[in-house]
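Give me C-alpha coordinates for this 153-residue protein.
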Amino acid sequence: MTADDDVNVLATLHFRELFGRAGVYQLPSTGEGNPRVAGAPPHLRGRILFAPGATYDALDHRFGEGQVVKATKLSPEFDYKAFRERYGEDALVLFIVTEAGSLLVCTADKAPSPKPGQTLICLVDPRLAVTVEEGVGPQNDATTSGGEEGEAV
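Here you go.
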Protein backbone atom coordinates (compact mmCIF):
# COMPACT_ATOMS: atom_id res chain seq x y z
CA MET A 1 0.00 0.00 0.00
CA THR A 2 1.16 3.45 -0.87
CA ALA A 3 -0.29 6.94 -0.82
CA ASP A 4 -0.23 6.87 -4.64
CA ASP A 5 -3.62 5.75 -5.95
CA ASP A 6 -2.23 5.09 -9.45
CA VAL A 7 0.36 2.66 -8.09
CA ASN A 8 -2.26 0.94 -5.94
CA VAL A 9 -4.56 0.36 -8.92
CA LEU A 10 -1.65 -1.07 -10.95
CA ALA A 11 -0.69 -3.33 -8.05
CA THR A 12 -4.23 -4.69 -7.77
CA LEU A 13 -4.24 -5.46 -11.50
CA HIS A 14 -0.92 -7.31 -11.19
CA PHE A 15 -1.74 -9.31 -8.07
CA ARG A 16 -5.27 -10.14 -9.19
CA GLU A 17 -3.70 -12.63 -11.59
CA LEU A 18 -1.94 -14.37 -8.69
CA PHE A 19 -4.61 -14.24 -5.96
CA GLY A 20 -7.87 -13.73 -7.86
CA ARG A 21 -10.08 -10.67 -7.53
CA ALA A 22 -11.52 -11.79 -4.17
CA GLY A 23 -7.99 -12.03 -2.72
CA VAL A 24 -6.75 -8.56 -3.67
CA TYR A 25 -7.43 -5.55 -1.47
CA GLN A 26 -6.71 -1.86 -1.50
CA LEU A 27 -7.43 1.13 0.67
CA PRO A 28 -10.18 3.47 -0.49
CA SER A 29 -8.96 6.05 -2.97
CA THR A 30 -8.69 9.63 -1.89
CA GLY A 31 -9.76 10.46 -5.42
CA GLU A 32 -9.15 14.16 -4.78
CA GLY A 33 -7.65 15.76 -7.85
CA ASN A 34 -7.11 12.42 -9.59
CA PRO A 35 -10.01 11.68 -11.93
CA ARG A 36 -8.19 8.67 -13.45
CA VAL A 37 -8.33 6.78 -10.14
CA ALA A 38 -11.49 8.27 -8.68
CA GLY A 39 -13.31 7.13 -11.79
CA ALA A 40 -11.57 3.75 -12.10
CA PRO A 41 -14.24 1.12 -12.68
CA PRO A 42 -14.69 -1.49 -9.95
CA HIS A 43 -13.32 -4.30 -12.12
CA LEU A 44 -9.93 -2.52 -12.13
CA ARG A 45 -9.83 -2.10 -8.36
CA GLY A 46 -9.24 -4.44 -5.44
CA ARG A 47 -11.75 -5.02 -2.68
CA ILE A 48 -11.87 -1.95 -0.45
CA LEU A 49 -10.24 -2.56 2.92
CA PHE A 50 -11.75 -1.91 6.34
CA ALA A 51 -14.23 0.97 5.83
CA PRO A 52 -15.07 3.58 3.18
CA GLY A 53 -13.21 6.35 5.05
CA ALA A 54 -10.10 4.28 5.82
CA THR A 55 -7.93 5.97 3.19
CA TYR A 56 -4.13 5.99 3.37
CA ASP A 57 -4.22 9.58 4.63
CA ALA A 58 -6.87 8.77 7.26
CA LEU A 59 -4.86 5.81 8.59
CA ASP A 60 -1.67 7.88 8.54
CA HIS A 61 -3.48 10.55 10.56
CA ARG A 62 -4.74 7.97 13.09
CA PHE A 63 -1.24 6.56 13.59
CA GLY A 64 0.13 10.10 13.81
CA GLU A 65 -2.31 10.77 16.66
CA GLY A 66 -0.93 7.72 18.43
CA GLN A 67 -3.72 5.24 17.77
CA VAL A 68 -2.68 1.65 18.37
CA VAL A 69 -3.36 -1.76 16.87
CA LYS A 70 -5.03 -3.94 19.48
CA ALA A 71 -6.03 -7.60 19.61
CA THR A 72 -9.13 -8.31 21.69
CA LYS A 73 -10.59 -11.77 22.12
CA LEU A 74 -14.35 -11.67 22.44
CA SER A 75 -16.19 -13.78 25.01
CA PRO A 76 -19.80 -14.20 26.12
CA GLU A 77 -19.07 -11.63 28.85
CA PHE A 78 -17.26 -9.20 26.52
CA ASP A 79 -19.01 -9.49 23.16
CA TYR A 80 -18.94 -7.18 20.13
CA LYS A 81 -21.58 -4.90 21.64
CA ALA A 82 -19.45 -4.49 24.79
CA PHE A 83 -16.40 -3.87 22.59
CA ARG A 84 -18.23 -1.04 20.79
CA GLU A 85 -19.45 0.41 24.07
CA ARG A 86 -15.89 0.48 25.40
CA TYR A 87 -13.98 1.61 22.30
CA GLY A 88 -16.70 3.51 20.45
CA GLU A 89 -17.75 3.57 16.84
CA ASP A 90 -14.41 5.16 15.90
CA ALA A 91 -12.55 1.90 16.59
CA LEU A 92 -11.64 0.45 13.19
CA VAL A 93 -11.88 -3.34 12.96
CA LEU A 94 -9.17 -4.47 10.53
CA PHE A 95 -9.27 -8.25 10.82
CA ILE A 96 -11.08 -11.02 12.67
CA VAL A 97 -9.30 -14.19 13.73
CA THR A 98 -11.78 -17.08 13.93
CA GLU A 99 -11.82 -19.77 16.59
CA ALA A 100 -10.10 -22.07 14.08
CA GLY A 101 -7.34 -19.52 13.48
CA SER A 102 -8.44 -18.29 10.05
CA LEU A 103 -7.91 -14.61 9.28
CA LEU A 104 -10.92 -12.71 7.94
CA VAL A 105 -10.11 -9.41 6.26
CA CYS A 106 -12.68 -6.70 6.97
CA THR A 107 -13.91 -4.87 3.88
CA ALA A 108 -15.95 -1.72 3.29
CA ASP A 109 -18.76 -3.63 1.58
CA LYS A 110 -19.54 -5.90 4.54
CA ALA A 111 -19.79 -4.77 8.16
CA PRO A 112 -17.96 -7.07 10.57
CA SER A 113 -20.11 -9.40 12.65
CA PRO A 114 -17.69 -11.02 15.10
CA LYS A 115 -18.79 -13.61 17.62
CA PRO A 116 -17.57 -14.67 21.07
CA GLY A 117 -14.43 -16.80 20.74
CA GLN A 118 -13.10 -14.72 17.86
CA THR A 119 -10.32 -12.15 18.15
CA LEU A 120 -10.61 -8.62 16.76
CA ILE A 121 -7.55 -6.90 15.36
CA CYS A 122 -8.45 -3.23 15.43
CA LEU A 123 -7.15 0.32 15.48
CA VAL A 124 -8.20 2.17 18.63
CA ASP A 125 -7.64 5.36 20.56
CA PRO A 126 -4.73 4.74 22.96
CA ARG A 127 -6.60 6.30 25.88
CA LEU A 128 -9.06 3.43 25.63
CA ALA A 129 -6.47 0.71 24.98
CA VAL A 130 -5.71 -0.18 28.58
CA THR A 131 -4.19 -3.61 28.99
CA VAL A 132 -5.24 -6.29 31.45
CA GLU A 133 -1.93 -5.87 33.28
CA GLU A 134 -3.01 -2.33 34.16
CA GLY A 135 -6.12 -3.73 35.78
CA VAL A 136 -8.76 -2.71 33.28
CA GLY A 137 -10.08 -4.36 30.16
CA PRO A 138 -11.16 -7.72 28.85
CA GLN A 139 -8.97 -10.79 29.11
CA ASN A 140 -6.51 -11.49 26.29
CA ASP A 141 -6.11 -7.88 25.15
CA ALA A 142 -2.81 -6.99 23.52
CA THR A 143 -1.72 -3.60 22.28
CA THR A 144 0.99 -2.97 19.72
CA SER A 145 2.23 0.45 18.73
CA GLY A 146 5.53 1.78 17.40
CA GLY A 147 8.09 -0.35 19.16
CA GLU A 148 5.99 -1.53 22.10
CA GLU A 149 5.64 -5.26 22.33
CA GLY A 150 2.19 -6.79 22.32
CA GLU A 151 0.84 -10.30 22.35
CA ALA A 152 1.40 -12.13 19.08
CA VAL A 153 -1.82 -12.68 17.21
